[in-house]
């Protein structure tokens, strides 16, 4: 079946009013313009994914559920499908299942993790990344030794420990704090060279492994 023919069939089955207008809109939006005259079986996997998205969007659902939408795509197709899903997510709720944690980190703003039938996490990504480490931390490095008491006095800093590198310090942050600008001003005020400033958080993959490899 041809792409446009398939979408016309799906529109008819869903009782879509003015199907030609809606199909034209979705073909343009999903980037199927050059492929609309082709047989679906002749398309690459990336374009077949686009056809599936166009079909799912025909009746403009408020919630879109996708199962492994980026599986098996090459890097270019992957980037294009990511952009399309992110654009859709600005207009409607998009739920998709995947085992590729890099995709979760690149696309999602909220994560649900199910392990052996049990819900083990349901959080926004930033909160999920702090879940196992408590408050996040900043790893800073200067060109010389700094009085830790002065670092601890920076607004938003809950505590200070020594880092592994020379003249480096781990600043433990208070909830929701982001004192990076204050650290920069501290360095300027004390005539210090700021050699490094890195926010430390677990990746989604690290959180997933920690939550799903625990003993049952």
Automatic annotation (TrEMBL):
It comes from the Bacteria. Pfam families: ABC_tran. InterPro entries: ABC_transporter-like_ATP-bd, P-loop_NTPase. It comes from Neolewinella aquimaris. Belongs to the ABC transporter superfamily. PANTHER family: ABC TRANSPORTER, ATP-BINDING PROTEIN (PTHR43335:SF4). Keywords: ATP-binding, Nucleotide-binding, Transport. Residues 18-71 form the ABC transporter domain. This is ABC-2 type transport system ATP-binding protein. The keyword Chaperone does not apply. One of its GO terms (molecular function) is ATP hydrolysis activity.
